[in-house]
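Supplementary Note 2. Why include the ligand at all?

Several targets in our set were suspected to adopt different conformations when bound, so apo predictions alone were not considered sufficient. For every target with a known small-molecule partner we therefore ran a joint prediction. The input for zinc ion is given below.
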Amino acid sequence: MKKLLVVMAVCCSVCAIAFGKPAFYAQGSGDKKIVALSFDDGPGPYTARVLAILKEHAVQATFFMEGQQAQSRPQFVAAVKDGGHEIGNHTYSHINYYAYKKQDKEQVLTREILQAEQAIMRTTGVKPHLLRMPNGYSKGWARELVAQQGYEMVNWSFGCDWKKIPAAELYAVYAKNIHPGAIFLMHDGGKNRQTTVDMLPKLIDEIKRQGYDIVTVGQLLGI
Ligand SMILES: [Zn+2]
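The joint prediction is reproduced in C-alpha cell form.
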C-alpha cells in the first residue's frame, strides 16, 4: 500500500492521518491510546460468533459489509446494528479492481457502492459513511468516486487473518501491532474464519491489558 501513498496530508479536524487526495485513512492520529477492530466481507457464517465475543467483552467494532451478503443475511445486518456496532460499505460483490481491465470501471464501482448501500439501508435505514474497497484498493480514480458518493475511504494499519496460520500465531502478530490509532482488519465472512474467532477474545484482552480503549473506526478517526 505504501507505494500508493502519493501525498501524506495532515490532518483533518481531529488529526487522523489522511493519505492522498481525496484522502483515505489507514490509522488514527496516534495521540490517544485507542484502537479499532474492523470486520470485512460479512455478514457471514462467523458474524454471530464475532458479535457474541464483542458483547461479552463490551466492545464496539466496525463491520464493512458486502452488499450481496447483507442482502442474503438481513438478520445479521440487524444484529450488528442492534449490537451498537458501526456498519461500513464494502461494495456489493467484492470485485478485485487491481485485476479489472475493462473501461467501464467507474460505472461498475458506482453501481457496486449504491447496490451495497441499498442492501444495508434496507435493514438499517441509515446510509453508511465509511467505505472500504475490496483488497484495500485506493487508486486516485476510486478515491474520487468514493468521495463523490459521500463516503470516507478507510483501509487498515494491520491485518493478515486470511493467511493460513494457527490462531496462536495469528494472535501474536496482531498483538505485536497494537499501537495508538491502530485499525485492525479481520474478517467475519468470505471464507473459513475460525482462526479469527479463536484468537479474537485473547486479542481484545491484550488490547485492554495494555490500557487501550477499543472504539469504532469512525470514532477513532473522528469522522
Ligand atoms: Zn474484503
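The mean pLDDT is 92. The beta strands are 8-9, 17-19, 24-27, 34-40, 62-65, 86-89, 130-131, 152-154, 183-187, 213-215. Comparable summaries for the other entries are listed in the accompanying table.
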